[in-house]
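Deliverable D4.2, example record:
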Amino acid sequence: MYAFSIRLLMMLSVLKLISSRTEFTNFKCHSLDTDFSEFEYCTLKAVNRSYKYISTKIILHKVPITKVKVKFGLYKKFSGYRPFLYNISVDACQFLKNQKTNPAMSYFYEFFRSASNMNHTCPFDHDIIVDKLSTEFFNHRITKILSFPEGDYMFEWHWIAYDITRAIVKLYLTLS
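Output generated by the structure prediction step:
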């Protein structure tokens, strides 16, 4: 029994040394209605081999915006991107009032909340900014909080204002 316990402890210590790594591979932003909103920038920046971040700024032309929905999907690459676990639609204004109503959406909202100025409820009467959201933050959430299997993923958000899809944002990443 003693030898088994020592082997188990050794295996666990080796497993702690093995860690997953998240890497952004692409970031795409597309405005479907440029009269309503447009992207000033949508960038994926590699500072060095290990530090990458994304930034975007959405200019809102018709403010205040009082009715927003978000359709979020998580896709994994299996000879093309296929739906993987989550396909969520929420009323963003209601969700921001009470984030406990949708735990899955809360998990994904936490990915960019600290790097964004979207931290209040409707109305939105200013441009939306996500600034320097790093792979390290994604890595922590995807490997430590809720583990995902290795592979290529796409996070896709459809931003819907007044029941019309206004913008689509896609973030591609690899978990290895």
